[in-house]
Amino acid sequence: MQIILYIIFFIIIILIIISNYFVNKIFIKTNKKLFEKDGNKKEESKEKRLLKEKRKIWFETSQKDVYTISKDNKKLHAHFIKNNDSNIYIIIAHPYEGRGSYMKYFIKQFYDIGFNVLAIDLRTHGESEGKIYSLGYLERLDILAWIKYINDNYNNAQIILYGISMGANSVMMCCNENEISSNVKAIIEDAGFTNAYEQLKRRLDIAYKIYFLPILEFTSLITKIRLGFSFKDIDVQKRVSESKVPILFIHGDKDELVNFNMANKLYESCSSYKQKLIIKDGKHISAVFNNENLYWNTIKDFINKFV
User: Fold this and answer.
1) Sheet order of strands, 75-81 included
2) What are 2-25's pLDDT values in tens digits?
3) Which of 128, 140, 185, 233 gets the highest tally of CB atoms within 10 A of its CB?
4) Neighbour tally for 60: CB within 10 Å
């Protein structure tokens, strides 16, 4: 009997050590690799490099640094580009370990459509304060803070939320909030996941092949003890099932990081007006480049239904 107790105690200690490792790797601002894609970037053509440089110069000469404070007292930073005569404001939320300035392609596209653009640094990214990531749960407070910023500073604003990957989770997590204002007209998400448990289980199974241990359950518990939230809180599918805002779900069917079937689950669960676009051969956060015309025409048509 004593030997059995020792074995159980040993297993629990091992689970706690492994779970703390994953909490640090996923949620703490350190040197994380779990969500990075494998492989080297493809070499870009000269024409593409020149286009990116031109876009970079445009961004740097057009943008203005703006700041606000979140409900939980984090100082947040964003890049704002005013588009004269427009009362439509796009809030752009970047992927995990990104920043607003990395979203120049999307910023320019939305600007050229005719919208004002606010490309935010989510907490713990870029120039925004923070020490932890929460895969959309706490980041939703950043989105709500920027909605308030627009409403406090601009009259008759109509607001669209756009997010990609973790940014998609962040904007979707706002969709059922009591604080979301009625002038938030639509949400566009690209490559978001259903919930933390399903996504992390898939990633850990692929990366570490430890199916036989209750790692996720322990990691969720340790996350709750250390950071104040659990995987149960990071449930995007539940949020969209109570959505107050129309949502466009976009996903590439060759997404190697977030399975595209998650877009189908989110779409089926969504309680508000909804639309879905699956991009053939599209990969994670780059599906747009497989069919740019379809991607942007779908977004424009969707927004035009509500503004």
Assistant:
1) 64-69, 75-81, 116-121, 88-93, 158-164, 184-190, 247-252, 274-279
2) 787 777 777 788 889 989 999 999
3) 140
4) 11
